[in-house]
Amino acid sequence: MEGRMRRTLDSGLEDAEAQAPLSGSNGLAVSAVIKYGDNIVKVYSTSVAIFLTAFVSVHMFGFTLTPTFYIGTMIVSIAIYLHYVGKPQQPQK
């Protein structure tokens, strides 16, 4: 029984080691957004974090993304672009 449990834990260790830095960097990015951004930026940054995690998962774990995911990525990217293009420029001091 102990040998089987050890193999199970060892097989998941590489996945955990890969996910720990991703989760840590995601936490740092979220804390920076919370400190300096407004609500809409927080929503967009969460969406971008989900997309980046999905693309990293494709390369690391061999996941396949659906066309629906790509359509959602395109919609969110266009929304982010339109949000920042529509903002008036702040006068420089």
UniProtKB/TrEMBL annotation:
Entry keywords, A to Z: Membrane, Transmembrane, Transmembrane helix
Membrane-topology annotation of the record: Multi-pass membrane protein
Localization per record: Membrane
Pfam families listed in its UniProt record: Nuc_sug_transp
GO molecular function, one term: pyrimidine nucleotide-sugar transmembrane transporter activity
GO cellular component, one term: Golgi membrane
Family annotation (InterPro entries): Nuc_sug_transpt (IPR007271)
Transmembrane parts of this sequence: 43-63, 69-86
UniProt main location, coarse: membrane
PANTHER family: NUCLEOTIDE-SUGAR TRANSMEMBRANE TRANSPORTER (PTHR10231)
Protein known as: Uncharacterized protein
UniProt organism field: Carex littledalei
